[in-house]
Design a protein that fits this description.
Blueprint (H helix, E strand, L loop, with lengths): L1 E7 L1 H7 L4 E4 L7 E11 L11 E12 L11 E15 L6 E3 L6
Parallel strand pairs: 1-3
Antiparallel strand pairs: 1-6, 2-5, 3-4, 4-5
Length: 106
C-alpha cells in the first residue's frame, strides 16, 4: 500500500485531531487511501512520546489544492485529506515522497 512519511506531531494530528491538509512543496495526482508513516524526525522535543519510525494509520487523499480555507493550509500545495483511520503501530523505514509498504493492505 502507498505511504507518505510525515513528521510528528503532524502525523498524529492527521489521524487523531482533524488535520485535513498535508502541505507539500510538490503537487500530486494520487487519489485514494494511503498509509500515514510517522517519520523519525520531529520538530520539538515535547513530542518525544508520540510514535515515530512507523505506520500509525491511513487516510484518503481526495484532492491536491494550491489554496484552501482550512486553517491547516499554508503550503504551496496541499493534499486534501478525509476519513482518517488509526492502525496499530507498525515499525518501518520512511522515504521521501510516496513509497510502498507491501505488508499492509489497509
Amino acid at each position: 500500500m502507498i505511504a507518505l512519511s510525515i513528521r510528528q506531531p503532524w502525523a498524529w494530528l492527521i489521524i487523531n485531531a482533524g488535520k485535513d491538509i498535508e502541505n507539500r512543496s510538490w503537487p500530486t495526482r494520487f487519489r485514494g487511501r494511503m498509509l500515514v508513516h510517522a517519520g523519525k524526525g520531529m520538530t520539538k522535543s515535547e513530542y518525544e512520546e508520540l510514535p515515530r519510525g512507523g505506520v500509525i494509520g491511513s487516510v484518503e487523499v481526495v484532492d491536491c489544492v494550491s489554496s484552501h480555507d482550512s486553517p491547516w493550509f499554508f503550503g504551496k500545495h496541499g493534499f486534501l485529506l478525509r476519513d482518517p483511520k488509526p492502525l496499530p503501530f507498525l515499525p518501518s523505514k520512511g522515504r521521501l515522497g510516496f513509497f510502498d509498504i507491501p505488508e499492509i493492505g489497509a
